[in-house]
Amino acid sequence: MSSIIVPPPPDAYDFELEIQRKNTKYFLDADPAPLVLFRSVRVRTDAGGYKDGPFAGIGGPPQIFRLIPANDRMPEIKAPNGRLVTPVYTLLGEHDADVRRWDRFEFNTVWYEIASPIRPEHTDSRYETKGDLVRREDT
Hints:
two-stranded antiparallel sheet, alpha+beta, 6-stranded antiparallel sheet, Thrombin, subunit H, 10 strands, single chain, 1 helix, globular
């Protein structure tokens, strides 16, 4: 006897995604960290290429994130200067947070930088945005 697998209706996926996004928002609201992110501005060189310029605020109101302390099992990641550093926090934001690798921000008088690629890399079906943080003095 063969069995027929019937996938759930398409709106079931939408419902699940909606619930996941609400859970992420509740988690953020339980310990919110309103942050203003700073991003490097690309500057054109005389040779026609680009280089990283000064950092500037990305504009708009502060975004709400949550800083989750890293555990001792976090793998080392390569900082912009090539040194291996251990992340101190994971930055968690909503699915539509405007955040990129190498963005910086100040929190409790300490500057941090997002040193890992932003996760998930795919924008479809995502319900949160994450990146690993290192202290700026470590990079």
